[in-house]
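User: 2-C-methyl-D-erythritol 4-phosphate cytidylyltransferase, Eubacterium oxidoreducens:
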Amino acid sequence: MISAMLFAGGSGTRMGASADVPKQFLEIEGKSIIIRTMEHFENHPLVDKIVVACKADWIDELKKQIKHFGITKVEDIVPGGANGFESIHNGVVRVAEYSKDDDIILICDGVRPMLSEELIDNCIKYTKKYETAVPVTPSIDSLLYSEDGDTCNKSYKRSSMYITQAPQGYTMKKILWAHEEAEKRGILNPVSSSELMIELGESVHLYQGERNNIKVTTPEDMHTLRSYFYYERYRTFAKEVMKYGF
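Assistant: Predicted structure for 2-C-methyl-D-erythritol 4-phosphate cytidylyltransferase:
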């Protein structure tokens, strides 16, 4: 059993999104970002079920959109938590209710609408082999470390730095252990599941991510996303023009 667990419980403060519309519900070319993200798992032949941790007062809206766009793999929608980790936890617990230890969970933010089938393929493949699979891209920028944001006396070797992406894959046994340990040790808000694993002393297996697999976080990301889908629509139109000769 392979399940995708999407977490979309936030409101998008870094996006500067309207207080009335969380960023995952902003529309691109007639579809919300969360639906576009979900469709990649809906259409993937190896993904069996989808569980979504959603901002509680938007669950009814998400249900309407799932029905409207014909998403059939959604097993359940659970309320999100006070932060990203709590939302992930709620989703993981729900997936665990119908999963076995060696089943796979693909944990993904609900704001990655440019996922590829190959990326999901690789996540599944490496999770089966290593129990963990985290997509990364090499850092193309130099990195400096600062405690106060004003001064710096430490830098990092760029060739050793990587940017994490999603989906991140785990066996259910592995991720449930991590969440149980987090509770025991008082780890309340790790940035991601991979960082939780590392904080617990575990290693995670890295695989090659994709630079266009953007997480929609800032207004600049929205501009990039809109440009991409506008280009795709224009390219489709141009193909039709060439096909019919008008």
